[in-house]
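Re-running the complex after MR caught last week's input typo. The corrected sequence lines follow. Everything else is unchanged.
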Amino acid sequence: MLRGDRVALAKLISRIENNASDVASIMAAIYPHVGRAKTIGVTGPPGAGKSTLVDRLVERSRKRGDSVGVVAVDPSSPFSGGAILGDRIRMQDHCLDPEVFIRSLSTRGRRGGLARASRQVAHLLDAFGKDTIFIETVGVGQTELDIMELARTVIVVLVPEAGDTVQVMKAGLLEIAHVFIVNKADRDGAMRMQTELEMMLQLHPEAAWTVPVLLTEAANDQGIDAVMEAVERHGTFQTSDTVTQHAPDHRVHEFLEVLGEELRARVDRVGTHRQDLIERVRRGDIDPYSAALEILQDQRALTEILGADE
Amino acid sequence: MLRGDRVALAKLISRIENNASDVASIMAAIYPHVGRAKTIGVTGPPGAGKSTLVDRLVERSRKRGDSVGVVAVDPSSPFSGGAILGDRIRMQDHCLDPEVFIRSLSTRGRRGGLARASRQVAHLLDAFGKDTIFIETVGVGQTELDIMELARTVIVVLVPEAGDTVQVMKAGLLEIAHVFIVNKADRDGAMRMQTELEMMLQLHPEAAWTVPVLLTEAANDQGIDAVMEAVERHGTFQTSDTVTQHAPDHRVHEFLEVLGEELRARVDRVGTHRQDLIERVRRGDIDPYSAALEILQDQRALTEILGADE
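Corrected-run output:
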């Protein structure tokens, strides 16, 4: 993978998606090669035109000569287990370009862990040598906010119809945005939304970086260069300031997160070691919480389930 | 709490929100009293008018003589840590009614666990004796979908401006809805959206329950009785069918989830037992993944960190 083998990269990503037992070893091996890429997050409510925007930004990045990775996080239905990848069809032009690597991540019925997988795939693309990595999330839930934490620059995309700006605050988007975009700016209310956002941002105490509010029509390729310029400016600002300060905390957070996820994943071993207990829960002979306490208060059961790797 | 003490209820909910170490014991104690309440989930994109709708539904439920609980899940910003509770101000009338208990849950900077906390608070309100429990989530991310799994009947609220119906599919809402509502139905496009949703639902294989698509204007109190009627009908349908079939799986899922969360939470003990390792990660002397492996491959460290409750 580190020698530029795309097939190897795709295989490693699959291992991460499936949370294979050697994920920590893989990540430990590639970690020394991580940290060179520009990571750009793009989030906002469904229907805001994020995919089209990312499409345009990928095109601009390629024109500059950057190699590009795209991690698209689709919140697939917990029932059907499938993500709808219609948007990605627009990416077809880029699919023929060997310098663009696009991967959609979905939950596939797994619970949680999407923020972890997104971060790790972004690390892989970084180590692989991509210059710019876009991380696009559909939706505005907590998972999406967590994912955006791993981006150096976060673009929040809205549309005039997205509801009033109070909704933006409620969704927690005001605090994570480094660049605001009002897309589909040919529609009614675009400029009003721009003004409202600018006013809200002025109330915000964090003065070191002034968050620009840009109007775009991604579908018509309007306003994209201004977005690229804002991202570039924020990248320069970040390098000189916050990234270096926050990096140690981010590393500790990542350590505790990966360890916590691994310990949590070991709960599956209950199925091997205490099938009897699962059956009792299934039959209703014991409630779920008493069953959990039965494991937690039993040192031998804990050691079996959580025992060290051989 | 089981004797109807509201202060005791509020205290227990706080313990759950803070994921206190005795949550499993609390839940084990109340579990025998869980299962009587009707749980109704209300979700949809920000700005769809969910809170107003819930407000109306609470009013109707009270008129029938039901006691009511409301769990409102706000995806608070991971940065500011505060939820914006403006919507809840509309609930003030109900606040004076001792038979209505309203609680907003937010992430408060904690990662994940919101689905767990929501489920447990709903269990508490159920055991407390509430007849009907509304669970309202803001946003349409994976966390929100997880939360909706715990409701017996799920209402998905949309507005004509919410984007085309493909967005509904992308957000995974089609599969979780038992009742669709197009709110703010006095606006342009409401009936077109209704028709589109009905067409999409016809493509859907699950034929046992026909998902109704209802038009409402919650702000003007229009169409609410039809929603109540649809929820009632679905409740009857559920009781006779799926709930009883799925309950054993749900219990096992809840068992593994609470155990997994507890094991994950114990990662905090690394701070006590291996402060040295955290310092090495902070300084960059070891990468986060190698540090995680160091713990995972060391039985003594694991036992210290994960040791059984005394």
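None of the earlier attempt is carried over here. Confidence is low (pLDDT under 50) at residues 76-90 of chain A. The longest strand of chain A covers residues 68-74.
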